[in-house]
Design brief:
424 residues; alpha+beta; Immunoglobulin-like; 4 domains; 17% helix; rod-shaped
Amino acid sequence: MGNNPENKFNRINRIIIVSLCILILFAVGLNAATQSTQRPARTSQIEVTLINQEPDPAEPGNYVDVRFKLDNNGSEEARNVEVEILPQYPFSLDPGVEALRSAGTLQSMQRGDVGVIVKYRIRVDKNAVEGENEIKIRYRIDKGIWIEPEEFFIDVQTYDAILSVDSVSIDKEFFEPGSSGILRIGVVNEADSLVKDVKARLDLGGMPFVPLKSTNEKSVYQIDAKKAHEFSFELLAKPEAESGVYQVPLRISYSDELNKGYIKNATIGVIVNAKPDISVTLDESGVYEHGKAGEIVVKVVNKGVTDIKFMNVKLGESSSYKIVSSDEAYLGNIDSDDFETADFDLFVENTNEKQVELPLTLEYKDANNNNYRDRISLKLNLYSASEAKKFGLKKENGTLGFLIVVAIVIGGLFYYRKRMKKKG
């Protein structure tokens, strides 16, 4: 009976069943042990979120307030919760400000509107790169291990990327008609971050200028924060350009690091001018001898390409003559390639001089109201009576000739009457 196969089979079944029971009990115990070791983790089911930043975006060189919310999604309370911010460039806390904060106890399922909010005031470095910058935070429960959620991001951007025109100059005093010059426009990036795709364009439509060796638009890839750049344009003033101040529209376009575009419109003044070129001559003279009076005519010719305004001519005093008229003559405006004359009446003193100096002072303005004062000396040639007759400058005395003719006629009549009496 002891060797009965059926009994042996039953023993084997019992052994198997007992073994299975032991395995089940071991598994149950292992699961209970696992749950007991993980029980503290249930109390640390804390969810941390960055709910807002103020201002948004943050500006380099200023402060930003960030608020984190802690929710307890666990089924047990979380006691003595502590939060610590881990600022890294470009963020920092002011000296004396604690990074570690207490959030207290979060009850089971304390979340949503009743979650705990922790606020930090953070300084943003003035050289912060525009865009999303990383900020880290960590927490722990009841002095347990620190738990660090995934990093958060704070948006940083300069409110207004400012690119301003700093200077405008040319390599000469002004543009002359028919000549070229270099126009330089200096711009400066006043923002705390770089600007890129910077383009400067001159609107030359209707202007008497033509760009040389390039177009009317220049560009540069980027200008770093607080840095400057100079755009150079070589321009030719057209030969027919009139003198004056021209307002040239300038358009500057650029983008910030977040690809936000900006356009700046400005106006720059460009001067076209030419120095006056005048010629002064003694055009006519009614005085050729000493001790005589007469009129002289001074001719002022504008040979330049710019008009002349408010021309006034003054004849200076001299011991060689006396001015018997006004010593000044106002000629007004003299257009390019035109002339005006000034008349003066003189009495020349008896001297042995062959020439008399005529000192003239000319005061006038160009088309751009620049003042000019020129001193010019002309020569008045004098002759003897015989020389004046010889050169045809002095006419014969008509009265003397008339008297001679009358005397001859009278003499002839007297002779005729005397002869007739003799015959009678």
